[in-house]
Request: fold
Amino acid sequence: MSRRRRMMRWSAAGTATLLVIAAAVGAGWLWRLPSNPQAGTPSPIAADEAHSTVEALAPPKRPDRPLVAVVGINDATETTDYLMPYGILQRADVADVSLLSTGPGPVQLYPALRVQPQATVAEFDAQHPDGADYVIVPAMSRDDDPAVLQWISAQASKGAIVIGVCAGAKVVGRAGLLDGRKATTHWYYLDELREHTPTVEYVPNRRMVVDGGGATTTGITASMPMMLTLIEAIDGPDTARSVAEDLGVAVWDARHDSAAFTFTREFAWTVLTTTAAFWNRDEPILELTPGIDEVSVALVADAWSRTYRSTTVTVADDAAVTTRGGLRLLPDRGSVDPPGGHRLPPVTGLPPAAALDDALAAIAARYGSDTADVVAMQLEYPDGR
Reply:
């Protein structure tokens, strides 16, 4: 046998051996992960705790009509974290809400959608030198963006209540606003929050935690109870109840079962096997129409882009589509269907919570219930689990 052929055989054998070892190590790691926990019923929140939460969120500057700023970075801000607080507060019409970016131009959202913000942080500061009453900080692709950290720190020094939505808590922590305070965040990013903010006191089993002139929430869908609680703090329970009915939300207190959301064997296996099937990719097509509800479209596009096998593609006849709350969404393509994609049902006529439930049901029907559960886990959506 020639030397070259022997080397090729040894190389092939070595590669095969490495693959076997990697598979064995991976199987061992996978086996050590916990299995999916049994779904539990979270305990209701005591009346005095609920009352103190609402009281702590009272408008700090403008009691009649507070000013709310939702801030994001242009290159990558989380879809639902960015759009849902704006859309819910616009429904209530109890505050002036501005969607901001650190720089000029559109904000690319992840995992889907693109939006034109209403102002930059510099423009906001010029218009409102005394600062906002509330600053909402979504998850971003980086937690240490200097412009964001400097701006939210300045807003906090002017008396704003800073609310870290989901993994946005990491950004708030990097700004030094969670040092020695109670907080929560998305289950997947808890270790990162603790790493960069070691003095933070994590509070489990709460969808929102208010402490020290700020607030944090758990997963992506926690914007619903958080914003409803904020509405209650601004204009009372009747307004919050009316908006909750419009959203399709029955309960919006801080109750939560943190144990139901963790990195499990089933979650890891579904992600690994789905990612490995790289040839089996899908493009759900979501049409953007004038007056579309930014809350519903954010939830649906977000959900369909978290399956590890599909990414939502938005289409429209126009270069920009104005939403129910006055935002300008920028479609990915014209109205022609991309090859190989499938049309999603129109995001109209349903409350946002029902639109999300329908999307999860459709994901389960198309890709399997394990994939739908992976999506619900990422959204930290109790009803979806």
